[in-house]
Amino acid sequence: MIEIPEQELRLGDLEADETYRVAVLQSPTTSETNTTDADPQPEQPSQAPPVEEGEQRTVEIEDIGDQGDGITRVERGFVVIVPDTKQSERVTIEITDVRENVAFAEVVDRVSYYE
Predict the structure, then answer these.
(1) Domains of the chain, start order
(2) Is pTM beyond 0.70 here?
């Protein structure tokens, strides 16, 4: 059993009988001290998502997620989820929702590979 602090939970709509994936990442607590001789890793400043709501981009759908939505990645591997697309399809998208680690977009235009 793993206890998760309430402030770390993001609650949203969950569907019964669906599979959801979570990531459990190790994070040092404030009481831990660095006892090794190795240089500590410098903390990287939190970076803002590389996309904004309303922004349009032409992308290639790289993969299809578990729910059937297209997945593409932009700068720094930032994931954008695009419904109603197929793998390897080139589309112009408009970003509709941006979160800390993922964005959602809608198809504005389907682009020919020759453009």
Answers:
(1) 55-110 (2.40.50.140)
(2) no
